[in-house]
Description:
The strands form 3 sheets. Strands 3, 4, 5, 6, 7, 14 and 15 form a 7-stranded mixed sheet that branches. Strands 10-9-8-11-12-13 form a 6-stranded parallel sheet, with helices on both faces. The protein has helices spanning 48-55, 125-147, 165-176, 191-197, 229-237, 261-265, 280-293, 296-300, 311-314, 316-319; strands spanning 7-16, 19-28, 36-45, 71-79, 89-93, 108-112, 117-118, 157-159, 181-185, 201-204, 220-225, 239-247, 269-272, 303-305, 326-330. It folds into 2 domains: 7-119 and 302-335, Medium-chain alcohol dehydrogenases, catalytic domain (Quinone Oxidoreductase, Chain A, domain 1), CATH 3.90.180.10; 132-272, Rossmann fold. By secondary structure, it is an alpha/beta fold. It starts with 6 loop residues before the first strand and ends in a 6-residue tail after the last strand. It is globular and about 60 Å long.
Amino acid sequence: MTDTMPKTDAILIDKDDNGQRVARTQIDLPALSDGEVAVDVAYSTLNYKDALAITGSAPVVRNFPMVPGIDFAGIVADSRHPDYAAGDRVVLNGWSVGEKYWGGLAGRAHVRGDWLVPLPEAISMRHAMAIGTAGYTAMLCVIALEQAGVTPDLGEVVVTGASGGVGSVATALLAAKGYTVAAVTGRPDEAGYLTSLGAASIVDRAELTGKPRALNKERWGGAVDVVGSTVLANVLSMMKYRGVVAACGLAGGMDLPTSVAPFILRGVTLRGVDSVMCPRPERVAAWARLASDLDMATLDSMVTEVAFDKVIETAPQFLEGKVRGRIVVPIRPDLG
């Protein structure tokens, strides 16, 4: 057991009175404490939250300096946690990693063992990051709809932000389970991509961006929303009687310009889905479902690989609406 660790390659965000700086550099990792695990990172990802952190477009980072990367998959190199030993395959999503604690856009990460999930054997480390926080969140949304009684016979399930990471995986998961998926996108050229994931129809985002009415014509039995704000308000107004919305994102804003009408006149349920602090048993269950429910060939069609040294220049594309599906960052792919 070593008390000190060598330097590791990382993306590092720092900030002072002159503003924010981001660079790929060498960092010194702190010694492991009791309950912590050192993980050699095989793959990480670039997510919307990472893009906000790297560009400084929103106050995502709570402590400086910070290594971004809200998820990673890799091999345990050293452990001071009873549940993990060197050689174990693990995945991490959330827990404010990349915001409060150094994250996965690095060659090695030191994290609390309680935050890790053993990676199912059926999922490679590359596929684990093709899924990433976005796909894991999508699975939590699908489980939330199932638990609330939303079944395929209740009619279409609408997925907003469908060409993004969460939306792409949610579309594929729901379609594979027999749901009729209406995929919402602001990019008409993505229709073929969404249809290939299993979407039965494409909805122009413009249909959901007008001023919301208290109630609109009943349209959908369930929904997965990653946008929030006006889009979510319009979705709520169009839900069928006792429809359920799983809401997990705020790409369109944190406000919700709606009324109580959908809830008290149609019995609509708005169910929040949080992936960051989700309890470990639910994480393990979600990853087990991903291993059994998600077709890896379909997953591959969602993935773009971005080299580690291209992460910083790629991040602004999220804010420009140019990212489709999932971005995987190979860091030490030789690990498996």
